[in-house]
Write a structure and sequence with these properties.
It comes from Pseudohaliea rubra DSM 19751. It catalyses: 4-amino-4-deoxychorismate = 4-aminobenzoate + pyruvate + H(+). One of its GO terms (biological process) is 4-aminobenzoate biosynthetic process. This is Aminodeoxychorismate lyase. The chain is of the alpha+beta class. The chain has 2 domains: 110 residues, D-amino Acid Aminotransferase, Chain A, domain 1, CATH 3.30.470; 153 residues, D-amino Acid Aminotransferase, Chain A, domain 2, CATH 3.20.10.10. Helix content is 28%, strand content 31%. It has 7 helices and 15 strands. The strands form 2 sheets. Strands 7, 8, 9, 10, 11, 12, 13, 14 and 15 form a 9-stranded mixed beta sheet that branches. It has a 6-stranded antiparallel beta sheet with strand order 2-1-6-5-3-4. A hairpin with a 4-residue loop joins strand 8 and strand 9. The longest helix has 17 residues. The two termini are 21 Å apart.
């Protein structure tokens, strides 16, 4: 069986209530890619999860143990790709926004088949600029916290417009990310991704690209404010997240791109690193 719901490492058919994650979005989550029982870049996910829990003041539960017991119970085939959502909430507590003084965190793990083969080439994305803008909140910027209504609204707009992705700006007009992925723009040998100190999610694949994959190919990496004009003038554009990997943008508004050799090299390097990560 390769699907299932697990609460604190035990198979469950429902979520226990009360829970502050359900009531207030009080928690952090990670979306992991597994092949069989092996997680891709588990350390990067663990470091981001730990940093997020520390910022929210939630004790870190034994989530690694819960992952192991959940995967043992699910018993996926060794070559089966899985999407695993790992959620840590503050757990239960009294009514009201104020968190309990000594919270007992709760781990919820959801297993499902990966939406696509991460080693297969994906078609270039058709994108445009979203009408929606994301609010700026530096206290939560970079975190993959449970409050995702802005992404829900962006995804709804994307579907209504018949696009593969939308690029979303903050309230100041700076491009932040795609609806469910980080964004990179290529200008010559300079690879730039938006600064996320005000809002957005600092993805694990974004970190992998900035620290490892892009420098290995001789690219200079920059994290800075990007306006829509910088997107239109880019030599190449791509999105990345944990389940899709690196996917090129083929069209943004009226601007179109052909296959870019450097983006293709990054995609090859990513797939090779992915295979090594889950070996």
């Amino acid at each position: 069986m390769t699907t299932g719901l697990f609460v604190d490492g035990r198979r469950a058919s429902s979520l226990p209530l009360p829970d502050r994650g359900f009531a207030y979005g009080d928690g952090i989550f990670e979306t992991l890619l597994f092949r069989g029982r092996e997680a891709a870049w588990l350390e990067l996910h663990g470091q981001r999860l730990g940093a997020g829990l520390e910022r929210l003041g939630i004790p870190e539960p034994p989530w690694r143990t819960h992952l192991v017991t959940s995967l043992e119970a699910a018993d996926p085939a060794p070559d089966r790709w899985l999407a695993v959502r790992l959620t840590v909430t503050r757990g239960g507590g009294p009514r009201g926004y104020g968190p309990p003084a000594e919270p007992i965190p709760r781990t919820v793990i959801e297993l499902s088949p990966a939406p696509r083969d991460p080693l297969a080439a994906a078609a270039p994305l058709h994108t445009a600029l979203a009408a929606l803008r994301w609010a700026c909140q530096p206290a939560l910027a970079g975190l993959k916290h449970l409050n995702r209504l802005e992404q829900v609204l962006a995804a709804r707009e994307c579907r209504a417009r018949g696009l593969d992705e939308l690029l979303v700006c903050d309230t100041g007009g700076a491009v932040i990310a795609a609806t469910s992925a980080n964004l990179f723009a290529l200008h010559g040998d300079v690879l730039t991704t938006p600064d996320l100190t005000a809002c957005g999610i600092a993805g694990t694949r974004r970190r992998l690209l900035l620290e490892t994959l892009a420098p290995a190919l001789g690219l200079t990496c920059r994290v800075q404010t990007l306006g829509p004009d910088a997107i239109e003038t880019a030599d190449g554009l791509f999105c990345c997240n944990s389940l899709r990997g690196i996917v090129a943008v083929g069209r943004y508004e009226q601007r179109q791109w052909r296959d870019d050799p450097m983006i293709e090299r990054l995609q090859v390097a990513y797939r090779e690193a992915l295979c090594a990560s889950v070996a």
